[in-house]
Each structure stands twice: as structure tokens, then as C-alpha cells.
Automatic annotation (TrEMBL), chains A, B:
Belongs to the SbcD family. Residues 264-354 form the Nuclease SbcCD subunit D C-terminal domain. This is Nuclease SbcCD subunit D. It comes from Jeotgalibacillus marinus. SbcCD cleaves DNA hairpin structures. These structures can inhibit DNA replication and are intermediates in certain DNA recombination reactions. The complex acts as a 3'->5' double strand exonuclease that can open hairpins. It also has a 5' single-strand endonuclease activity. The lineage of its organism: Bacteria, Bacillati, Bacillota, Bacilli, Bacillales. Residues 1-139 form the Calcineurin-like phosphoesterase domain. Heterodimer of SbcC and SbcD. It comes from the Bacteria. Pfam families: Metallophos, SbcD_C. GO terms for molecular function: exonuclease activity. CDD domains: MPP_Mre11_N (cd00840).
Length: 381, 381
């Protein structure tokens, strides 16, 4: 039995003010190509299908079309759960109709929930939940941490689980480690939102969502697939993939990967402004990538973001090495240097640094008037 | 063939700040009782299932449960369209899965749309739409009014329609008249959001939503069902019903009604405050109804809303006959009466009217200080 494990699609995501829907559409096409090639028996989506509880209608249409293509047109069963970004109610609306087409959309875990059986493998979908609702549904007052709540859920599932067949846990949580079952670590984790990976050892495979890196856990049977694509610059160096999970008749698991490649990558570049604006350099670059640029220049620069965007239209974030260095100095030397200077003096220094024109008496008079006006206002209030 | 025609459920509606979800739940139970009794071949919901494009999750759950009971548990086919209050994208998410269970949810009309056939009757669902999208989809630039857009849609449907079987139009629009086909009237209607009823004469029955009164149109075959319950005081005197539509083998239509009765009615009462607060009176009343109260008292009253709510917890709106009368006077006589009076004089008059305590020199001094403080602030800005 073979299934594809993916998660964290975040449809409708806005990165630095830019909607990623078109990029998501393209990566989903790649996913569908993988499904055509692999012909799996199921697709598992481990939460965060949408980026927010009320996604934009473009994202609603994209999810509808995607699930339709995979589930109805290609006839592939889908096991999906809601993540912390989804609205469990809105996402699971209509779930009982979907089941008839082997689309299993779960928004809320309930103790009497039956596993989803596909080709002899039993899937146990457990959507993201705060401890509160689990505490209520199990009537166990002591479930205050995510770890304890998940432990109680897993115990409830394992209680009724047939261990003679392969069992797959599908979850959306912040799971730590998993390679050891160091109880001290688990205790220290208890209070936070983390869950100890050892909980999932009874399962043949655990398909997780929440962390965006496919390497967030290194374990034979406990896996994050990572997100559909890069959603922040902290993910710039992560590879993006889906996991292909095969369970043979003896219940042994093999996990391989298939890469996903967004047409517009998200990456960081560093350099001097003049260098980055040089055709020799930029013609070697994929200029429409989503970029975080760090400028190494020391001096003042006139609106570098605007200059850079003429060449790199999708600069999302700009950093100056200089600015950072100044910031650290300021706390010691530069504060002293300011002492005894008038506001006019300080402004003159600033003006010299950020413009190329000369300071004049006329400008000084104008500034004096403005400062006086501001001070009068301050006195009144 | 028999079907029930309903519309304008407005789940998630907030009336004067009060969520109606519990009341809606109760009326929907009545609807389900009617379905059990009537055993119809279909249920038609002619738009505005929700009150807004992003309804509260309670309303999402209520619609999910209701459709599930009717469609899955009772196995009754449902033909539903989105109204102007619904988000067509969000409501029709999953529509292709629903179709397999004979739940036909249409969010957008398309020219190649096939009718829904149930027991030999063909339903033509046309969700609410502004002229814009219809203009685009039909590539007819001249469709600027609702009437023209609807005319084009109907023509497109009638073109391919088999007139030898009964055809039911399901729409959500502001339809006028319908008993005559007076082209002048139609023209005068053109510019507004209205649609001439004569457009629907080719259909065996036209099931409309949008207007909340079941009597909005008096016509043999063109009908509004009206809303599920009263949603404003302008509907206080309307009856609330569903229509039971039977089409016999010759294609003849019979329409009867079944009443819906919200447990808490929405109604108006008028009287003097003392009278309404008198036990003799209020024990004859259903005190938890949603009320608009018009007080006939002439003099000043101290916080009458608060007093009334001790007895009638769901007073939603309070009107004073006096206040209205004063308002009309003010433009003529009372403005003159104010001339020459100081702010202190005017405040004293107001104070005497709304309190039972006496005016004092101490109070006058306090007021003078406050007024001076306010005036100083005004001078400064």
C-alpha cells in the first residue's frame, strides 16, 4: 500500500503583502504530476490546508478544484485534517457527503471516531486541537498541556487499535525528537505547546504537519512532510518535498521523497548595491524570485529598495549590514556623541547622511519653525 | 411530484444585536416535521441560506446538520442556490461531491448548466447575480440592468428547454408583479435592481427567494416562499410559511402552505409605560417575544428601556410617540424658544425633565467649571 504524505499548504497565504495563490497553484500542479506518476492508494494532508480560518475566495476555489481533481477525477482517496490555521468547522462542512467519495475531512477528534481504512491500512486522523476541547470531550480535568492531551488521545486510539494491521497516525502538532524516549525531556516539554515524539511509537507511520521542514524530525516512522512551498525567509534553505510512504505486507515502511519546486524561489542574496544592480551580475539571477536582500554598503543610499525593485520586482525584505552595526554602537559610543548637540545639529547630521544636497540657512529657518510649532502643540496638551 | 419551496433562512442573523441561531434551530425543526409529514420528492431553498458571506461557526454547524438530516438521513434531494447574502464560492465549495447524494448546491449560473431532474421535473437553479458576471459569461455588453441580465439568462435556458416536461425555475431576485406583461412597466423597472415577473411565464413554477413575504407576488405559478422567520419589525405582521408545490402528470400546479411558527414571535406593542408594566396586562403577554414597543406617554420617563426589560427581556426597539412629536415641533417653535437662553438655563430645563432631584447652586457651579474647561480646550485647538 502506497500513499503520499503532504501538509501545510497554507492556501491563501500572504507573504510580505504578496498573495502566493498563483505560486501555490503551480506547485499543486507538480503535486498532481507526482500523483499521476506514483499512482498512490491515498493522499494524506496533515493540516493547514488554508492559511487562515476565513481564506480569500481564490483560495477556496483552488482547494475545491484541487480536491476535485485528485479525489473525483483521479479517484484517489484523501485523508485530511484541519491544522491550527484552519477553521475546523468551516473546513469540515460537508464532511459526511465527502466520505461517500473517500474524501475523509476531519475537523474535530472524537473518542468514538472510527479509523479510515484504505487497502488494509488504518488511518487515525487527529486534527490540531488545544488541550481545552480534548479535556472536555474526554472529561479529564488534568489535561492542561498539549503533550498530556495528545497522550490521552493516543491512548484512547491505541486501546481499540488492531495491531495486526498497519496503523497510520495523521496529526498536526509541534512534535519534538521522537528518536529517544527521554522522559526528562518530555517533562520539560510538558508546559509548552510541544508533544513528545515517543507517543507515536505504536503506529506503523506517523504523518505530521505543522513544522515546515521535512527534516524537523529524524525518525524511521515519525515524519513531517514539510510545507508545500517556502513561506518565510527562515525556510529559504529548506528543500520542499512530499513523502512517498510504502507499507509492505509485513508492515515494513519505506519512505522516499519527491521534490516540489516553486517557479519563483524564496531566497536571500547579499552584496553591495552597485554590484547587485550590475547587469553582469543580475543576468545570472532568476530576477523574479522572492528575495531578501542584505546590502553590505557602508555609506548612505538613496531609496535602495526602489532601485532594487527595478531589477528584482519581488524584493520582499531589505536589510542593511550598516544599520545593524550602527544599532549596536549606538548603545555605547554614539549616545554620548549626541550629548550637548541641539536638535538642529542632529537633524543637519542626519540630512547630510541621507541626501546629496547642501544644508542652507533657509532650510534651517524652516526647520526651526516646524520644531517651534511642534513644541507649542506639546505644551498645550 | 411534490416539493417544498422555502428561502431566506439567513442563518447566523443578528437582529438588533441578538443572534437568532437558537430560534432558527427551532423553526428548522418545524420544517423537518413538515418534511416528515409531507414526504416530498425534493426541497427547494431559493437563496440566502446564510445571512452573510462569512457566517459565524454556529450557523455553519446548523446548516451542515440541517442539510445532513434532510438529505442524508431522510434521503430527500435538495436544490439550493446562493442568494445575495451568501458567498457563492464558500457556499458551493464541495458541490460536486454533494451532487452524488442529490444535494444540488449552485453558486454560479453557467450557460452550459444542465437542469436538475427529479422525478420527471426539471429544476433550473439560477443563483443571485449582479448583471456584471452574467454580462461576462454571456459576452453581451448591453446587459446593464438586473432585468436585462435575467432576461438573457431565461432566454438561454428556454432555448434548450424541453417544454413537454414540467420545468421549475429557482431564483433569487427582486421580482415585480408577474400577473401582467406590461412592457412599459418593465422598462421603468429596467434601471433598478428589479426584474419583471413576465420573464418567468415559460416555467411551470418559479420558486423565488429574496423578498421576505410569501405574498410579495400574487401569481398562479410565480411564488416567493418568504423567509424562515421574521427578521425585522417591518415583517411583524407577515405570516411565515413554506409552500407545498404539487405538479400532476398533466403539468398542472397546486400550491398550498404550511405555517412556521417561531417560539419567540417578533411583534409591536403600544401603550403607556405604567400600563405595560402592570401585571394585569403583562401576564396576558408572551413576555420573551422580540418586541418593538411604542410608548404613548407625554412626559419625561426615567430609563424606560431598562424598566421594560425587567418584564420583557427581549425589547429590541423602543419608540416614544412624544419624541417624534417634539422632533417635528423643534424645527419651528421650539428652536425659537431656545433663543436668548444660556447653556446653564438649557441644561437646567433638561435636568428638570429627566431627573427627580432639585437643581442647586452647587450643581450650577460644577456645571460652570465643566463648561469653562470645555471652552478652553476648544479655544486651543
Amino acid at each position: 500500500m502506497k500513499f503520499i504524505h503532504t501538509a501545510d499548504w497554507h492556501l491563501g497565504k500572504l507573504v510580505h503583502g504578496v498573495y502566493m495563490t498563483e505560486d501555490q497553484k503551480q506547485v499543486i500542479k507538480e503535486l498532481i504530476d507526482i500523483l499521476i506518476e506514483e499512482q498512490p492508494d491515498a493522499l494524506v494532508i496533515a493540516g493547514d490546508l488554508y492559511d487562515r480560518s476565513v481564506p480569500p475566495t481564490d483560495a477556496v476555489n483552488l482547494l475545491n478544484d484541487t480536491l476535485h481533481t485528485i479525489n473525483v477525477d483521479m479517484n484517489i482517496p484523501i485523508v485530511a485534517i484541519s491544522g491550527n490555521h484552519d477553521s475546523s468547522e468551516r473546513l469540515s462542512f460537508g464532511a459526511s457527503w465527502y466520505r461517500k467519495s473517500n474524501l475523509y475531512m476531519t475537523g474535530k477528534w472524537l473518542p468514538n471516531q472510527q479509523p479510515v481504512e484504505i487497502k488494509g491500512v488504518r488511518f487515525h486522523p487527529v486534527p490540531f486541537s488545544d488541550p481545552g476541547p480534548i479535556r472536555e470531550v474526554l472529561q479529564q480535568k488534568d489535561l492542561t498541556s498539549h503533550h498530556d492531551a495528545m497522550k490521552a488521545v493516543v491512548e484512547k486510539i491505541v486501546e481499540k487499535m488492531d495491531l495486526s494491521v498497519p496503523n497510520v497516525f495523521v496529526g498536526h502538532a509541534f512534535v519534538l525528537g521522537g528518536s529517544t524516549s527521554d522522559s526528562e525531556r518530555t517533562l520539560s516539554v510538558g508546559g509548552s505547546g510541544c508533544v513528545g515524539g515517543e507517543l507515536f511509537l505504536p503506529f506503523t507511520y506517523t504523518a505530521l504537519g505543522h513544522l515546515h521542514s521535512p527534516d524537523a524530525i529524524k525518525h524511521d516512522t515519525i515524519h513531517y512532510s514539510g510545507s508545500l512551498m517556502k513561506y518565510s525567509f527562515s525556510e529559504a534553505k529548506q528543500r520542499k518535498i512530499v513523502k512517498v510512504v510504502e507499507i509492505n505486507e509485513e508492515g515494513a515502511v519505506t519512505v522516499t521523497e519527491k521534490p516540489l519546486k516553486a517557479e519563483r524561489d524564496m531566497r536571500e542574496i547579499k552584496g553591495y548595491l552597485q554590484e547587485l544592480m550590475d547587469e553582469e551580475f543580475y543576468r545570472t539571477q532568476k530576477r523574479d524570485d522572492f528575495l531578501k536582500i542584505t546590502l553590505l554598503d557602508d555609506g548612505a543610499l538613496i531609496d535602495p529598495m526602489n532601485q532594487l525593485r527595478q531589477i528584482y520586482p519581488n524584493v520582499l525584505h531589505l536589510e542593511r549590514k550598516l544599520a545593524l552595526r550602527d544599532q549596536s554602537k549606538r548603545t555605547t559610543a554614539s549616545l554620548d556623541a549626541r550629548e550637548g548637540k541641539t536638535d538642529i545639529d542632529l537633524f543637519k547630521e542626519f540630512y547630510d547622511q541621507v541626501t546629496t544636497s547642501d544644508w542652507s540657512l533657509q532650510k534651517e529657518n524652516k526647520l526651526t519653525t516646524v520644531l517651534q510649532h511642534v513644541r507649542n502643540k506639546e505644551d498645550q496638551s
